[in-house]
Amino acid sequence: MKFFSASSAFARKFSKHCLGATLSLWGGLEAKPKVQANIVFILADDLGQHQLGCYGSDYYETPHIDQLARDGMRFTNAYAAAAICSPTRASIMTGKYPARLHLTNFIPGGRARATKLVTPAWQKQLPLEEVTVAEALKSAGYATGHFGKWHLNYDKKYEAGRPGDPGSQGFDEVLTTHKPGAGPESRYPEDWHHVREITERATNFIERHKDEAFFCFVSHNSIHDPEIEKKALVEKYQSKAGTLEDKRNNPTQAAMLETLDQSVGKILETLERLNLTQNTLVIFYSDNGQKGVKQGKPLRGSKADFHEAGIRMPFIAKWPSVIPAGSESPELVISNDFFPTFTDIAGKSAARENLDGMSILPILKDPKQSLGRNALYWHFPHYHGLSLGPQGAIRVGKYKLIEWYEKSAFNRPGAFELYDLSKDPGETNNLSKSMPELTARLKKQLDDWKTNVGAQPMRKRQAP
Question: Can you give the pLDDT at residue 15?
């Protein structure tokens, strides 16, 4: 783990010569002497929406996250821009679809295989020329801190001042962590996923910057595998009713989630103790769905698939001075939306050119508001060990279409799945054959979007 300030020689050079010029060209963002609110963004790893009590689980215990929902707003149609981690994280940082960035797989991706379709030469690092939300907020006078998992550089050998790591992407203070066995261990015993270490560094950052606006990005490795937690805590869930009845009820993940929930509680307690609660937006979110079985209720799918459980995320927002307590929004939102939302909150609305996200600030103020959004899109031109194959998807209103690229490329049966999510959130009734006109229209809309954002296509492998 590395801790450093962006006052390093590299950061000064980057800030002066790159950031300033890019922001000027990007939209002429000028810092204002006063900002509206602090922002704390808590990102879980591989956490499914169905695993939280406030989204209906009676197996997983998440009292602090559930209280966050009671005190704020719960989104029921919030999506990740990808079903795996790095692309979703890139969308949060930039406000852009992974397909536009050409960063469409986890970094560095899996091993090449002799597959029917060839994966394109995709982007394996968040480009330095991309303006991140941390850079935009920093230019507005925010103190910026990143604590935990990054996974947006070409490898995870994090170093102070190294291009591509968080300090070169707008974060003043940085702690980077690895999952168990992949890098330096936590300074604390039995803190395998660094939850305690991440939390303490985040709360320390909040305390030191309590008198100025801050952006605190709390990026957990948990509940990503390897699944490790205290024995007694795991045994608690092994003996709990429902463990054997539903394969999605994972005792070790439940134990890890309880530890993560306690971290959320400590951050909320810190804000309350410092009298910062009223003027702080707290976001709880996940980068993709649960790693586990693909068939389950209420949603179908898992990490690495575009079925709902792979991409429909828990999204909770609390901001007492703005957000009505106990509110709920059914609006279609996606991880691209955080960038324009946060810049709006900072009082420096971003130029919308090449931004795929929309500010949800109006919805935070009034859950009855609508974004007037036409559609959401996904593109995954890769093979993944947990996936059913390369795929794309589009959601328009209540309908969602999934295209399986390998099948559509060779005109094989089962290339398309069409669902009415208002009646069938578990995606059990494929309507593609009974509604061929709608299937064709959504397929064309997905294709047009891929062309518009410059998405990288797959090509057929040539026979030897």
Answer: 44
pTM of structure: 0.92
Across 439-459, average pLDDT:
98
Give the separation between CA 430 and CA 417, rounded to whole angstroms. 5
Range with top average pLDDT, 55-59, 157-161, 458-462: 55-59
Q: Catalogue the long-range contacts made by 434-443 (C-beta closer than 8 Å, 24 or more residues apart).
A: 438/399, 439/401, 442/394, 442/396, 442/399, 442/401, 442/418, 443/401, 443/403, 443/416
**R_g of the chain, CA atoms, integer Å:** 21
Structural contact between residues 159 and 194, judged by C-beta atoms closer than 8 angstroms = no
Tell me which of 1.20.120.140, 3.50.50.60, 3.40.720.10, 3.40.50.790 is the CATH number of domain 9-365. 3.40.720.10
The fold for domain 376-460 equals Arylsulfatase, C-terminal domain (3.30.1120)
Beta bridge partners of 39: 215, 281
CB-based contact 363:75 (threshold 8 Å): no
Instruction: Check whether 120 has a pLDDT greater than 60.
Output: yes
| pLDDT above 80: residue 35 | no
264 φ, ψ (degrees, to nearest 5): -60, -40
For residue 378, give the H/E element and its range: strand 376-380
The pLDDT of residue 97: 98
SS3 of residue 293 by DSSP: coil
Q: Check residue 114 and give its pLDDT.
A: 81
Q: Which residues of 190-200 are buried (b: 16+ CB within 10 A; e: fewer)?
A: ebbbbbbbbbb
pLDDT digits (tens, 9 = 90+) for 356-370: 999 999 999 999 999
Distance CA 426, CA 251 (A): 23
Helix, strand, coil % in the chain, rounded to nearest 5? 30, 15, 55
Q: How many CB atoms lie within 10 A of CB 230?
A: 14
Domain boundaries along the sequence of the chain:
9-365, 376-460
Tens of pLDDT, residue by residue over 279-319, are 999 999 999 999 988 887 899 999 999 999 999 999 999 99
Query: Is the Cβ–Cβ distance between 150 and 144 less than 8 Å?
Result: no
